[in-house]
């Protein structure tokens, strides 16, 4: 009986267990957890990140670069179209491509020299004999074949012209002596103070000024010159600034080293605003309103031409006049003189004039962005954007194709994971291969204009990798302070080239570091204060948290302004593979780091942005503003206290949000709560926008990161307005300083409001 | 055995069932549905809406109004402070209050007459004898006691002054005859064409112009006059325009009817922009930058004073000169003449002048908004905002206290449901009792400036109920087209006053209707094209989908411009309860309708906005634009095609989104998908903002709803620019028309992008 009972009990127990199991797992009912519950709480997968890192291949990057640099691909040329097709092919590849890829076209205003009538710079004797002619093209060294598609060096957007005295329009002309035209003067870097200084000694009316790159923006050298009656500007790269003094191509410069050969010329866009110049705030489409070309501002008002230092040497070392001050001296083995104006009486160019014959012309051309997306699975309406321009000046192996090769490797690895069904990001990823960046960030800017609303609402971040590798010493990164943490985190997970143990982070901190009040010594993530690459439209115009990532120099080894082949015909695959990153492991490191950041932004359940790091930056800026401006403002009855209050409220709100985040039980929170916090983090940079803050600066709306002339590590609008007011002492300038202080305080306070309790 | 087996089987089945039940309901495990899953899919509860409707009480509204109108409560006066305290008391009530209530203060620029030196309007004979003095205050009829706090009628922001010829600054003066000052002329409504017409007959230099309300904005009457050398402006309300011609207070006007008594004067703010005038785009705080008062634009450049029609009669009927045209004639029993300038030779005022002695002064005063919130349970970071101003000119029983009484009844019913734990909205509700609206929507505008970022990111909608009841005939509503559907839905659920069967909708459609291409005949929801009340900052500056709701006239019964006691001392509890809404059932109906809309916006799982209704509106506007402008633009080589494309893309994108919505299985969708669609709907109006579209119009950024002079039911910026260009035929004006067309097309296309596939 006992046995029976036991057996019966056992049987019952088994049946009961079966029932329990059936009941628990076997019944689908109304209260069953919907399938999406697990899905919405999915977080970043560290194993996939490791997989990504391991699959990024330096040789793939090398081959990408080889393909991209086969021909010169200046914006809107046939070579550019070849790269469009290549990008489309890669991104539409069924095995390694993206979900979708397409091109977007804009009709943009560009400027080109006339291939049939090249620009000329000559020295002409008083009798009209041409004594000297500057090179029209850079010397070819045979390693890269001579290519008729290499564009003659020119100053894009500088006007055509043959400077004549009847064209003189100047505010500051010294009219005591009758103007003779074409006398050469040396104006150092062409800054306002350089011309002011020069003008104390030399009558600039009717002169041609030769200037060296650096110190002032390209267009600025001519804009600053024109008020003095200067009729033309030459610009060259002094070997002191780019070549550590090296000048000889027989053994010192490329193809023997990375240094610029004597005939190398930095091309560039000579403008101060970004985006298509005829369609400010409007995407440049077929029937879009265009401003009259005469209304364009921020370009040279007088003919301007860049030349090599070989030609600059021939001109500068023959100048007469007084010796220029020590800080004006470059690397030439002669004394740099102001010019008499004009050449020394004992020179072969005595009494000769410099003639500029410039034939540049503006053209409206069709420029393409190539776009590609990986659609997000859970939050497709959140965009992480990764981009780089595609157009170069010549072959552009470094600028921009180092970045494009890296981007293509990132998309190859991610695309394959997607195509194989191994991965789909939480958020959508948009890749942009921008057109016509070299002419003023045009493709990316038109994109931000056309999709302003959509991008404002949904963009989590923009990652820019333009020149991926300037040099192979260390990572360099700039960005919005809230992005610092994710960049640092990614950099700790990637090894530095050629090492199994030293992380990118550990290497980086040796080259660039700062002492953070919060973290102690950490790598220094810079700020995106200018408009140096395609991040400008994103951070300044859209207020999207942005970053710019690259590998760069060991500054103890060179004082070059930038890599010496920059914007020259020498920026080739050969140059890059021999002198910049042999083996392409620095490229690989950038791909791994930027890709890691990208994956974290796309996959993290909670966005990896730290708003307290923003507070730290604002506090640093505030400290500097108090130091520099508090007293001066107070003397004009302007209290800086609202700014102090705003920064301190921002700090508290950020701390409070960090606390909410710390207390989150991520796996069990409602997805709407996580989304709410993510929105607070995502929209933080948006809160710093004020479209009326800088009425004279196209596209600059971010009151913390706008460009500034004052050169102080503090709030740009306040700094510039204060410096103007302090120098003019005009009431209206002090009013503007006060206005800047108020709008800045309001923006910071407004940002704090977005971080605090949601209601 | 069979029995045993059966029994055993039964037992086993029972045990199995027990097990199944235990397994299904008894085990908490990792895969159990989290508690928030049900919560996040909660939708609007129709029973709660019915409960709300039934609890809204007309007698409560009556008592609210009695309390609010005890004393005059002009902005920043002691009476205003009393209403602040009352609102705070009500919203902090432990039984019927909100979660939280507080005040927010701004230091704003207001304008007041000098109580010690009242403004004077007199007729002075050539020998300096005062022949006539206009009333300083309105006549008291004893039903409302005389209150020293009743402000003298004045034109806020009109400058102080005693017009003298040495102050003459005019562009269009006829200087042939020496100016004599103070000669009266009648200038109809003071529009530009009125003055142009008058100027053909009369030399306006040095004259005082008397004008009637209507046709042009208050400030405009003086702004339009000044260029002709007019030195002062009087303004009055003609009985034709407000009283259906009635004039006698012995039996025709208040206190015998709702008509304005002869001494009644419409006060008002004489400015054309909204918001605090010294702090454009900045919240007016203690240390905020303020523009110099001399830089204020949009206010009368010359002294201006409003008077009653009793005084206007005495002046106008004695005027000399030619008879004015029929459309200039009002209800007075005399012929309205232009003025000689000045009075008739046979009048007692012969050769006399009109003297204005205006002592208005600007003051920076502390104005409060009272804010209250009910925190949302599921999406607290989404705000539905409901507001009305609190300040009046005098007792303000209708303007604004009808709206405030309604708001207080809405908050009483909702607050009690919250306090009793019966309800908590899905989204947060913010109530705003704005200060200083009468001076130019100041409180609400400062609020939108201070919290710009937070409100831009999170506001679902703004509901404005200012004057809740103009009259008791029918509902009237204006709003963004996407809000049409929720207003119509709510209006179907509420019964019209005094009926158990006729809905507000059924009644409304009889008074205001239109034929929609989509729906056929429906009530006509108007557009928010101007800045008539506190919605301006929300729709025009923030781009938040807004609505304005009230009860209003049977236009077949009166042609009054507005209710006749508007902005007079007669806008009292007595007036409202006897002539506007006896029994307060229209107030109740507005509370029920607006509250219903509010609850739907706050509780609906999917926002009740319809983007296809927006498409219908845009198509209507496009049709009109094609009709009016296509040819003229084409003649200037401007193609309207981008606008056509944009509207058509908007229509497709809207249709697509509606399809996605139709296909939703709401109860089972992931909350992030619903949120995504809600964000698309919520942010739709935001996509129409362009801060640079209307550089001369403070706060107007919404390219569809900005104010317009052209008076055409089409896109305002294009309409105004086209009309200017067509009349001037200047190249730059056609350029501006083209720019308007481009920015409009881009905004509509940008909005379409936000409605389409999220990626």
TrEMBL record, chains A, B:
<keyword id="KW-0645">Protease</keyword>
<dbReference type="InterPro" id="IPR003137">
    <property type="entry name" value="PA_domain"/>
</dbReference>
<feature type="domain" description="Peptidase M28">
    <location>
        <begin position="369"/>
        <end position="577"/>
    </location>
</feature>
<dbReference type="Pfam" id="PF04253">
    <property type="entry name" value="TFR_dimer"/>
</dbReference>
<keyword id="KW-0812">Transmembrane</keyword>
<keyword id="KW-0325">Glycoprotein</keyword>
<keyword id="KW-0472">Membrane</keyword>
<keyword id="KW-0735">Signal-anchor</keyword>
<dbReference type="GO" id="GO:0004177">
    <property type="term" value="F:aminopeptidase activity"/>
</dbReference>
<dbReference type="InterPro" id="IPR039373">
    <property type="entry name" value="Peptidase_M28B"/>
</dbReference>
<dbReference type="GO" id="GO:0016324">
    <property type="term" value="C:apical plasma membrane"/>
</dbReference>
<keyword id="KW-0862">Zinc</keyword>
<keyword id="KW-0106">Calcium</keyword>
<feature type="domain" description="Transferrin receptor-like dimerisation">
    <location>
        <begin position="638"/>
        <end position="755"/>
    </location>
</feature>
<comment type="subunit">
    <text>Homodimer.</text>
</comment>
<feature type="domain" description="PA">
    <location>
        <begin position="182"/>
        <end position="269"/>
    </location>
</feature>
<dbReference type="InterPro" id="IPR036757">
    <property type="entry name" value="TFR-like_dimer_dom_sf"/>
</dbReference>
<dbReference type="InterPro" id="IPR007365">
    <property type="entry name" value="TFR-like_dimer_dom"/>
</dbReference>
<comment type="function">
    <text>Aminopeptidase with broad substrate specificity. Has lower activity with substrates that have Asp or Glu in the P2' position, or Pro in the P3' position. Lacks activity with substrates that have both Pro in the P3' position and Asp or Glu in the P2' position. Lacks carboxypeptidase activity. Lacks dipeptidyl-peptidase IV type activity.</text>
</comment>
<keyword id="KW-1133">Transmembrane helix</keyword>
<dbReference type="GO" id="GO:0008237">
    <property type="term" value="F:metallopeptidase activity"/>
</dbReference>
<keyword id="KW-0378">Hydrolase</keyword>
<dbReference type="Pfam" id="PF04389">
    <property type="entry name" value="Peptidase_M28"/>
</dbReference>
<protein>
    <recommendedName>
        <fullName>Aminopeptidase NAALADL1</fullName>
    </recommendedName>
</protein>
<dbReference type="GO" id="GO:0046872">
    <property type="term" value="F:metal ion binding"/>
</dbReference>
<dbReference type="InterPro" id="IPR046450">
    <property type="entry name" value="PA_dom_sf"/>
</dbReference>
<keyword id="KW-0482">Metalloprotease</keyword>
<keyword id="KW-1003">Cell membrane</keyword>
<comment type="similarity">
    <text>Belongs to the peptidase M28 family. M28B subfamily.</text>
</comment>
<keyword id="KW-1015">Disulfide bond</keyword>
<keyword id="KW-0479">Metal-binding</keyword>
<dbReference type="InterPro" id="IPR007484">
    <property type="entry name" value="Peptidase_M28"/>
</dbReference>
<dbReference type="Pfam" id="PF02225">
    <property type="entry name" value="PA"/>
</dbReference>
<dbReference type="GO" id="GO:0006508">
    <property type="term" value="P:proteolysis"/>
</dbReference>
<keyword id="KW-0031">Aminopeptidase</keyword>
């Amino acid at each position: 009986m006992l046995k029976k009972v036991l057996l019966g009990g056992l049987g019952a127990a088994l049946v009961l267990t079966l029932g329990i199991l059936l009941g628990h797992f076997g019944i689908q009912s109304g209260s069953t957890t919907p399938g999406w519950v697990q899905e919405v709480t999915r977080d970043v997968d560290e194993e996939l990140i490791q997989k990504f890192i391991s699959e990024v291949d330096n040789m793939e990057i090398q081959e990408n670069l080889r393909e991209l640099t086969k021909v010169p691909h200046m914006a809107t040329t046939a070579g550019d179209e070849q790269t469009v097709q290549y990008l489309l092919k890669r991104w539409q590849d069924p095995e390694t491509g993206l979900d979708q890829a397409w091109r977007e076209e804009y009709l943009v205003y560009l400027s080109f020299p006339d291939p049939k009538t090249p620009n000329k710079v000559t020295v002409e004797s008083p009798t009209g004999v041409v004594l000297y002619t500057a090179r029209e093209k850079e010397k070819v060294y045979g390693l890269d074949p001579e290519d008729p598609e290499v564009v003659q060096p020119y100053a894009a957007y500088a006007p055509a012209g043959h400077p004549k005295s009847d064209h003189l329009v100047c505010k500051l002309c010294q009219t005591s002596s009758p103007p003779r035209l074409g006398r050469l003067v040396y104006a150092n870097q062409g800054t306002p103070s350089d011309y002011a200084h020069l003008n104390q000694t030399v009558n600039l009316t009717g002169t041609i000024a030769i200037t060296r790159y650096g110190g002032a923006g390209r267009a600025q050298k001519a804009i600053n010159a024109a008020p003095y009656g200067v009729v033309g500007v030459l610009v060259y790269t002094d070997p002191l600034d780019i070549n550590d003094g090296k000048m000889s191509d027989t053994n010192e410069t490329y193809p023997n080293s990375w240094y610029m050969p004597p005939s190398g010329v930095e091309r560039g866009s000579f403008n101060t605003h970004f985006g298509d110049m005829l369609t400010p705030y409007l995407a440049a489409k077929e029937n879009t309103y265009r401003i009259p070309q005469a209304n364009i501002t921020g370009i040279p008002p007088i003919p301007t031409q860049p030349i090599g230092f070989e030609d600059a040497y021939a001109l500068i070392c023959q100048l007469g006049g007084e010796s220029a001050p020590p800080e004006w001296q470059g690397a030439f083995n002669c004394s740099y003189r102001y010019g008499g104006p004009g050449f020394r009486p004992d020179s072969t160019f005595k009494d000769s004039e410099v003639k500029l014959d410039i034939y540049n012309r503006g053209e409206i051309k069709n420029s393409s962005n190539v776009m590609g997306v990986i659609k997000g699975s859970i939050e497709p309406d959140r965009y992480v954007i990764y981009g780089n321009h595609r157009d170069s000046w010549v072959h552009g192996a470094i600028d921009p194709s180092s970045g494009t090769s890296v981007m293509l490797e990132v998309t190859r690895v991610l695309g394959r994971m997607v195509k194989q069904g191994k991965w789909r990001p939480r958020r959508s990823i948009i890749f942009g291969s921008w057109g016509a960046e070299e002419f003023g960030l045009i493709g990316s800017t038109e994109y931000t204009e056309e999709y302003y609303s959509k991008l404002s609402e949904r963009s989590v971040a923009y990652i820019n990798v333009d020149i991926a590798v300037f040099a192979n010493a260390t990572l360099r990164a700039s960005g919005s302070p809230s992005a610092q943490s994710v960049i640092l985190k990614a950099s700790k997970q990637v090894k530095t080239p050629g090492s199994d143990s030293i992380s990118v982070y550990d290497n980086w901190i040796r080259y660039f570091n700062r002492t953070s009040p919060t973290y102690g010594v950490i790598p220094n993530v810079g700020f995106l204060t200018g408009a140096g690459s395609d991040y400008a439209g994103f951070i300044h115009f859209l207020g999207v948290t942005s970053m710019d990532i690259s590998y760069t120099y060991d500054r103890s080894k060179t004082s070059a302004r930038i890599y010496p082949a920059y914007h020259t015909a020498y920026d080739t695959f050969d140059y890059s593979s021999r002198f910049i990153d042999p083996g392409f492991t620095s490229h690989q490191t950038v791909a791994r780091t930027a890709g890691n950041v990208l994956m974290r932004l796309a996959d993290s359940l909670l966005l990896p942005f730290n708003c307290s790091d923003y507070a730290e930056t604002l506090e640093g800026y505030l400290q500097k503003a108090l130091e520099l401006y508090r007293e001066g403002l107070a003397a004009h009855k302007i209290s800086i206290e609202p700014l102090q209050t705003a920064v301190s409220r921002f700090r508290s709100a950020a701390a409070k949000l960090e606390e909410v985040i710390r207390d989150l039980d991520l796996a069990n929170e409602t997805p709407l709560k996580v989304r709410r916090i993510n929105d607070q983090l995502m929209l933080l940079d948006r809160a710093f926008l004020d479209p009326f803050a800088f009425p004279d600066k196209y596209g600059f709306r971010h009151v913390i990161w706008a460009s500034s002339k004052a050169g102080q590590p503090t709030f740009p609008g306040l700094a510039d307005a204060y410096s103007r007011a302090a120098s003019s002492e005009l009431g209206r300038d002090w009013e503007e300083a006060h206005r800047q202080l108020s709008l800045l305080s309001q923006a910071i306070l407004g940002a704090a409001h977005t971080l605090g309790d949601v209601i």
